Amino acid sequence: MTSTPQPGTIGVIHIVRQARPGDQERAFNFLISFGGEENGALYIGEASGVEDLRHLLKKLGISSEAIDAACRTLAVKTRHLIPDVSLSRNRLGRLGL
Fold first, then answer.
1. Domain map of the chain by residue range?
2. Per-residue b/e over 67-92, b at no fewer than 16 CB within 10 Å?
3. What integer best gives the mean pLDDT of the chain?
């Protein structure tokens, strides 16, 4: 039996950079949520360092270009938004959400 693809909810990925004082290998944590333009409504998770952030965004189906742009922005700013993201229940379920 094959599963029918479920339509996704369109929203915005919110990423907030938090400093990790004393950790030179992973200087930042990133909090990721999904929701509307102003603030995230669904907590997706936390990434420890840039590589972990890249991995989580890739699992969410974010394009390489959008991931690169997010990482560049978060190198100099504490917040970044990725608009027009479609997340389905199936994808969130595979992430344990």
1. 10-94
2. beebbebbeeeeebebeebebeeeeb
3. 83
